[in-house]
């Protein structure tokens, strides 16, 4: 019996979602980052492509845009991808 594993392309959806969010006003809000994270988590695991995309998205956030909600979301993501 052969079992075929389907490759996840959630990381592409994550990238497009982040582009939509940034294109509105040039900023990413904590709840929008949460939506991107939810795409990564919906299959029960965050794979290396998704981690790469999350890190790239986070790298585009300016320090002046990090409020308490964003700081909390960034910490949540860090806890999930660095464990």
Describe it for me?
There is one protein chain. With 83 residues, the chain is mainly α. The chain has one domain (10-81). 65% of the residues lie in helices and 0% in strands. The protein contains four helices and no strands. Helix 1 packs antiparallel against helix 2. The longest helix is centred in the N-terminal third of the chain and has 16 residues, at 10-25.
How many domains? The number is 1
The proportion of residues forming helix, as a percent range, comes to 55-70%
Largest sheet data: none
What's the N-to-C terminus distance? 34 Å
| Class inferred from helices and paired strands | mainly alpha
Tally of DSSP helical segments: 4
Approximate shape: globular
What is the H-and-E element order?
A: HHHH
The total strand number stands at: 0
Mean pLDDT: 91
Proportion of β residues?
under 5%
Low-confidence stretches: none
Radius of gyration: 14 Å
Protein name: Tellurite resistance protein TerB
Can you tag this structure with a few keywords?
single chain, 83 residues, mainly alpha, 0% strand, globular, Tellurite resistance protein TerB
Quick overview of this protein structure:
The protein has helices at residues 10-25, 30-41, 48-59, 68-81.
SSE topology sketch:
Blueprint: H1 10-25, H2 30-41, H3 48-59, H4 68-81
Protein name: Tellurite resistance protein TerB
Organism: Arenicella xantha
């Amino acid at each position: 019996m052969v079992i075929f594993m389907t490759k996840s392309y959630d990381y592409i959806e994550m990238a497009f979602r982040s582009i939509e969010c940034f294109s509105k006003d040039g900023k990413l809000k904590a709840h929008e980052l949460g939506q991107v994270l939810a795409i990564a988590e919906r299959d029960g695991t965050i794979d290396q492509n998704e981690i790469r995309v999350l890190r790239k998205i986070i790298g585009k956030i300016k320090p002046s845009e990090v409020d308490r909600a964003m700081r909390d979301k960034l910490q949540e993501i860090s806890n999930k991808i660095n464990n």
